[in-house]
Design brief:
The protein is α/β, with parallel strands linked by helices. The protein is built from 10 helices and 12 strands. The chain has helices at residues 39-47, 62-72, 84-96, 113-119, 162-170, 225-236, 245-256, 258-281, 303-312, 336-356, and strands at 26-28, 79-82, 103-104, 124-125, 147-150, 177-180, 201-206, 219-222, 284-286, 293-298, 315-319, 329-332. Helix 4 (113-119) links the parallel strand 3 (103-104) and strand 4. The longest helix has 24 residues, at 258-281. It is globular and about 65 Å long. Bound molecules: pyridoxal-5'-phosphate (PLP). Pyridoxal-5'-phosphate (PLP) is lined by residues 31, 84-86, 110, 150, 154, 180, 182, 206, 208, 214, 219.
Length: 359
């Protein structure tokens, strides 16, 4: 080690899912939406006057903030936007988790949380999910420096009932509780209505999954105006212009098309339920998912073997080796057609595997 390295901030980074690019691939590994964004997004991007790109964008992201606030029945000063919810969450860690007491999040959850905690040197503890991969709310009824969990949880897809979330928020009014609702639009209940009652709650959502805009990088947080003001103070101390002109235009168009949004979510939910039935009949088991993915293990075939076999056929799913997730695959719900190809591949794979097995 060089002497200067002693003063380097050394971190183990988050590993995003791979982004292969093959013509025949079926990409079920990063929970993207299989449908294109709302038609209005294409229109505004085609109309975008590139001459305006010489000007800085609106630092308050006013147009997008207003559209989000209006859509969710909130005031403008209750909404904060960022470059994907990863940016919003990172800013929230920096802003709200400062007590020196450990923050709490589940042992199996979004694997960015411990990366941010390490990056910002925030102590943390990870209460274990129960055997069925459910959050035990009682684990969050002790002294802590803040709480964060996704609902539905990732990569399990399990929803925590809103009553349990309220209990966690109510019993922790001296700290900030962040509910990461990246997947809430696929059938879970949002904690947004609780904002009226609790000022220590921050709800974070993203345009990456349910609004088909992962490539545009738009996320947002909703909370009471004081929380949002603190978040903005940190943002303006870091980078005033997080949202560029294209993201502001595309994001605004996406929120305004509620009908398209509801229709794509409905299709994904329908395909998810079909896929669950098929997977069950093939010998997979899983907790009930309310997200746009299914976290499943097979009763005979190891997850890693399946992961590799699928990969060879250019069907990409996510595999988290080691620990309690060792024998699970996280399968994103694609179009009905994609899921049919996926299921057909598995049927054939298991049949061939059975034949090859010595008596
Ligand atoms: C996908 C995801 C995010 C991040 O989404 P962005 O693309 O950065 O908006 C945040 N939290 C969870 C749990 C996710 O799965």
């Amino acid at each position: 080690m060089k002497n200067w390295e002693a003063n380097v901030r050394q971190v183990v980074p988050y590993t995003p899912g791979e982004q292969p690019n093959q013509e025949d691939m079926i990409k079920l590994n990063t929970n993207e939406n299989p449908y294109p964004p709302a038609p209005g997004v294409k229109e505004v991007l085609e109309r975008l006057d590139t001459g305006t790109l010489r000007l800085y964008p609106d630092p308050t992201a006013g147009e997008l903030v207003s559209a989000i606030a209006e859509n969710y029945g909130l005031e403008k000063d209750q909404v904060f936007v960022g470059v994907g919810s990863d940016d919003v969450l990172a800013m929230s860690f920096l802003t709200f988790f400062n007590s020196g007491r450990p923050i709490l999040f589940p042992d199996i959850t979004y694997s960015f949380y411990d990366v941010w905690a390490e990056l910002f040197r925030i102590p943390y503890e990870r209460p274990a999910l129960d055997e069925q991969f459910h959050i035990r709310k009682e684990d969050y009824f002790r002294e802590n420096g803040g709480i964060i969990f996704p609902n539905p949880n990732a990569p399990t897809g399990v929803e925590l009932p809103l009553e349990d979330i309220e209990e966690i928020v109510a019993r922790n009014q001296d700290v900030i509780v962040i509910v990461d609702e990246a997947y809430v639009d696929f059938g879970a209940r949002s904690a947004l209505p609780l904002l009226k009652k609790y000022e220590n709650l921050l709800v974070v959502q993203t345009f990456s999954k349910s609004r088909s805009l992962a490539g545009m990088r738009i996320g947002f947080a909703c909370g009471n105006a004081r929380l949002i003001r603190y978040l903005n103070d940190v943002k303006y101390s870091f980078n005033s212009y997080t949202m560029d002109r294209t993201a502001l235009a595309a994001g605004t168009a996406a929120v305004k098309d509620q009908e398209y949004f509801r229709e794509t979510c409905r299709k994904i939910i329908e395909t998810r339920e079909w896929t669950k039935k098929e997977l069950r009949s093939l010998g997979f088991s899983f907790q009930d998912s309310k997200a746009n993915f299914i976290f499943a293990s097979h009763n005979v075939c190891p997850a890693e073997e399946l992961f590799q076999a699928l990969r060879k056929r250019h069907i990409y799913v996510r595999y988290f080796p080691g620990g309690r997730t060792e024998n699970f695959l996280r399968i994103t719900v694609g179009t009905r057609k994609e899921m049919e190809i996926f299921i057909d591949f598995l049927k054939k794979y298991f049949k061939d595997r059975e034949k090859k097995r010595p008596e």
